[in-house]
Every structure is written in structure tokens, then in C-alpha cells.
């Protein structure tokens, strides 16, 4: 199943560089020919922890992402381990967002 890499593009995440993260991820995924679709997402509700990136269907949530984190995220997208140090979001919020994604709301 194709992975989808959602990058939050709401005001708080954008003010912290999520637009650049979206563009860089898109370029790097294409360079590495990964079977990953990079998409913007309106808001995950973890605004104070952003920029936020959610990998679906793997259900990995990365918070406070910086450009220097992208190589590890790309390695994870290529089949490596999840970047556990960026997994700092409240489990209840994660489950709510994952449930929405499971219903196809994206």
C-alpha cells in the first residue's frame, strides 16, 4: 500500500516552516523514487507542537519537525524504523486523527 506523508499547513505549522518541509519532502521523495505521496493537510490539532507530519497508513506522527529531521524521516519512508524521538504527541489526539484518516477523511 502506498504511504501518504501528510504535512500540516495550518497557520501555526506554516509559521514554523511546514511549507518548506512539504516542498523539501516532495523533492526528496521524487529524487529517491519512493512510493510515497506527499500531501498537505489542513490541521491535525497539535498546533503548539508543530510542524506536524503524519505518515499513513503506518500511523507515525512526527512533531516539531525541522529540516534537519528530513533525512531520518525519508529513511523511515524507505523502510527504515520510525523516528521515535519525534513521536511526542498525546496518544488520545493521535488516535482521533488516525480514526479520521481510517475513514478516508483527507
Question: Could you explain the architecture of this structure?
Answer:
By secondary structure, this protein is α+β, with helices and mostly antiparallel strands. It has one domain (3-102): Glutaredoxin. It contains 4 helices and 4 strands, in the order βααβββαα. The chain has helices at 11-15, 18-31, 70-77, 91-102; strands spanning 3-8, 36-41, 53-56, 60-62. The protein has a 4-stranded mixed β-sheet with strand order 2-1-3-4, sandwiched between helices. A hairpin with a 3-residue loop joins strand 3 and strand 4 (60-62). It starts with a strand and ends with a helix. The model has no long low-confidence stretch (mean pLDDT 96).
Q: Would you kindly provide a brief summary of this structure?
A:
This protein has 106 residues and is an alpha+beta fold. It has helices at 11-15, 18-31, 70-77, 91-102, and strands at residues 3-8, 36-41, 53-56, 60-62.
Amino acid at each position: 500500500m502506498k504511504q501518504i506523508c501528510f504535512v500540516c499547513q495550518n497557520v501555526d505549522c506554516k509559521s514554523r516552516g511546514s511549507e518548506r518541509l512539504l516542498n523539501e519532502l516532495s523533492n526528496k521523495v521524487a529524487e529517491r523514487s519512493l512510493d510515497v505521496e506527499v500531501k498537505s493537510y489542513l490541521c491535525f490539532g497539535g498546533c503548539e507542537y508543530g510542524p506536524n507530519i503524519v505518515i499513513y497508513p503506518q500511523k507515525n506522527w512526527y512533531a516539531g519537525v525541522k529540516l534537519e529531521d528530513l533525512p531520518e524521516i525519508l529513511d523511515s519512508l524507505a523502510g527504515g524504523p520510525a523516528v521515535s524521538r519525534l513521536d511526542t504527541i498525546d496518544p488520545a489526539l493521535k488516535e482521533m486523527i488516525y480514526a479520521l484518516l481510517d475513514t478516508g477523511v483527507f
